[in-house]
Fold this sequence. Notes:
By secondary structure, this protein is an all-alpha fold. The chain has 2 domains: 290 residues, no CATH class; 162 residues, Tetratricopeptide repeat domain (Serine Threonine Protein Phosphatase 5, Tetratricopeptide repeat), CATH 1.25.40.10. Helix content is 66%, strand content 2%. The strands form 2 sheets. The protein has a two-stranded antiparallel ribbon. Strands 3-4 form a two-stranded antiparallel sheet. The radius of gyration is 32 Å and the shape is elongated.
Amino acid sequence: MLDVVFLSSGKLISSFKELPVVWPVTATVLGDVYLLLLASLILACFLIGICLSFKYIPYLLTDFRNASNNEIPELALKLWVAFLVIFPVLLDAGPLWYVLWWFILFWGYTNRSERRFAVVFVVLAMLSGWIAHVGGGLVTITKAQVCKEIFLAEHGFESAKDIEVLSSWIRKHAGDAEPMNALAMAEIKRKNFNEAVTLLNQTSNIEPTNARYYNHMGIALAGIGKYKEALTAFTNAAAIDSKSVIYLYNISKVHLATYNIYEAEQAINRASAIDPEHTSALLSQEQKNKKVRFIMEAVPTVKLLARQMRPSDELRAAADELWYIPFGILKRGHAVWLGLVALALLYLLGHFPSEKYTKICDRCGNSFYVGTTSKQGHPMCLQCNWLDTKSKKVNTILQHKIEEIKAYRIANRQRTSRMELILPGLGSLIANRTSRGIGWLFILSAALIMAVTGGGFMHVFFPTDIDIRIYVRLAGFAIIGLMYWRAYKSPPIQLGA
């Protein structure tokens, strides 16, 4: 969790209406949402793995019992199955290793929908290195790539320490133009125009197609009275970005400074033709504050976020930690190989004969080895499949099977309803309502994370005392309550369906 940093100057923001959409706010909101989703995904996958283990451990125990011809004591069999289920604990593995291991262990028992989710999970594991990189970039908002110092300098909130950080960074990274531009903007505000011109000459050499740098060069040159050179710099900026009215507005200011009224009006007319509303707003601002003569531009939010994602020591450390918490054992760079090996292993397991695994008929509840599947991909014994192929004429054998199906449906409804009340989604998975069960477990995981953390993984360093964590927690508890109410009112299996 990042430290709260208040700016040395500026108004303290106390309401959402006053909160500007600027980079620190945007990055913090994106970071909190991203980390909330990431934590919810990890918890949901772990809960799904637990639910599938709860569902298929009896199947595995039955197969071991049959394979040993009931010659091994029951306690020894249960201990062996328990050891297999918790095997990753010996490797000091993270929670997602357990999920992967459980999918491998129970692969022969899973239905079609559960296997699809397993493949999606493995693909996410393959991409987890990149996912952790994005999370690390958002976490290191105040540490990496001097993004914080750039923002402070551009908006006039910089301290002497921020200036020193920028200067030190420039000395070590001579090819990085953005910190030079930010430092030049700070120098312009302090009327150190010559220092700003020196910095901006370097930025223009590094990025000769960046219109902002030429714009700031024009302002710095105008500050030392070089209006002709300033006009050239503004004209270059307008040529690079012909849709920006700011450069045309600044051109008009240079013409006014040299008493070229007609040329100034022409520049404003050109700006109005491009964006009349923005031009009118700039002119209105000029009327309110007579000291504002030229307009400077901050780094676009998208560019700062992209800069924030550049590899750095701080970002790598944060990304490695984010990856290690759910996985462990391997390094983050091995995530792709982990996914590829897991996919290959699941592919090979899919070629094992299905007759080697116990299955429970989704219709009558009988155990079987040789059978088929329903249209939904659920296991079905041969008797129930035969029942579907027969005519509607009822005989004694058919009626007996129908009664057996009804009795199982009633018992299964009671069982899955209890499981759903224990953990929303568990009953649905047991009843082979896979998509529904996975969906509820994801929602439950997000609600639990919201209730526990309040979604406040990061703190903005913009001056604000707004804290919405209590509202996020209340929303999380409300969602959990609604889910249990839904589990009570809507069981996974409806009688008569």
